[in-house]
Amino acid sequence: MIRITKLSIAGALASASLCAPAVAQDDITTIKPEIAPKNVSGAEEAEMMAALQQMFQAEPLTAEQEARLPEARAVVVKVLPEGFYGQMMGDMMDSIMQPLFGMVTGPLGARGLIERKVGLEGENLPDLTDEQSEQIVDLLDPKAEQRAEQIQGVLTSFMTDMFARLEPPMRDGLTNAYAVRFSERELGDITAFFATPTGARYASESMAVFADPQVMSAMMQSVPAMLGSLPEMAGELEAAAAELPEARGYDDLSSAERSRLAGLLDLSEVELRQKMAAAAEAEAMADTSRED
Question: How many domains does the structure of the chain reveal?
Answer without folding.
Answer: 1
